[in-house]
Design a protein that fits this description.
Layout (H helix, E strand, L loop, with lengths): L23 H14 L1 H4 L7 H17 L2 H24 L5 H14 L2 H4 L7 H21 L15 H14 L7 H19 L4 H6 L1 H21 L4 H25 L9 H17 L1
Length: about 290
């Protein structure tokens, strides 16, 4: 790591028309150039990039499942872009740069694999896992020494918002913070939905836009309450939502196919025709 007194500087933007060289330094210079000259890249922040990082991770997973080399290379590149982009922004803030991130990763890998790099001998996966947990506990002690105490819900798994919501509710339930029955979860859901309705009821588009932050919070409360219902039913909120997404895409694909047989496109249709085909898609599902 760089000494604290040394100022972290972002990469120097590449000049002229760059080439694809496969070198990390050239990639850093390319991102620096985009930050300097691209209007979209200029306005990004570390917070604004969060949804893109999550999206790219999911798309990488889909590409690996499909096992197409070109798609996998493209999606790995998109994930790498997110890492490099974040590093560029933090370097611009004088906090750290790409070399710091790489160094931190190297240190972590070396520290967490004493059975590879030191004299320790671990003979099976279980022993490796146990030693890994011990090392992570030591790392947490170091975090606490830096003034980062561990809270009871800090073990929430990383993942999508739905996954995190369900896991944090599960952890809170283990600590006694939960309703005795599902009726309480349903009552909370109804309460949150009513609060959301109140926020938007009889409001103009301009009024909604002016109050969008509060509306977002109320919508989040509704989503969180619905996830709680899923948990009380022993259902996975993420899996249930994905099932719905796939069902929606399938039905919409049916609409598109039926319109194509009529020589029409989606743009040539209207909501009444599409809604009728949507109902036809549901009948087709039941008969399949």
């Amino acid at each position: 790591m760089k000494p604290l007194e040394q100022t972290t500087l972002p990469a120097t933007p590449v000049q002229g028309t760059p080439e694809a060289t496969g070198q990390i330094d050239d990639l850093l210079a390319l991102i620096a150039r985009l930050r300097a000259d691209c209007p979209w890249d200029k306005k990004q922040t570390n917070r604004s990039l969060i949804p893109y990082a999550i999206e790219e991770a999911y798309e990488l997973g889909e590409a690996v499942q499909a096992d197409d080399d070109e798609d996998i290379k493209g999606e790995l590149g998109d994930v790498l872009l997110q890492v490099v982009f974040h590093c560029q922004l933090y370097a611009e803030q004088g906090r750290f740069d790409m070399s710091d991130v790489i160094t931190t990763l190297q240190q972590k890998l070396i520290r967490r694999h004493p059975h590879v790099f030191e004299a320790e001998t671990l003979t099976d996966d279980a022993a490796v896992k146990a030693r890994w947990d011990e090392i992570k506990a030591e790392e947490q002690q170091a975090r606490e020494a830096r003034g980062k105490p561990k809270r009871r819900l800090d073990n929430t798994k990383a993942g999508s918002a739905l996954m995190q919501a369900q896991d944090v509710q599960k952890q809170a339930s283990k600590l006694g913070f939960d309703w005795d029955s599902i009726s309480g979860a349903f009552e909370k859901l109804e309460e949150e939905v009513e609060e959301l309705k109140t926020e938007v009821r009889d409001k103009s588009k301009a009024e909604i836009k002016a109050n969008i932050s509060d509306i977002e919070k109320e919508l989040g409360d509704c989503m969180f309450a619905l996830v709680n219902v899923a948990r009380k039913l022993s259902l996975d909120a993420e899996a249930a939502t994905l099932t719905c997404v796939h069902k929606f895409k399938s039905r919409f694909g049916y609409i598109e196919a039926q319109l194509a047989q009529l020589g029409k496109s989606l743009e040539d249709s209207d909501i009444e025709e599409m809604d009728a085909l949507w109902e036809a898609a549901k009948r087709h599902e039941r008969s399949s």
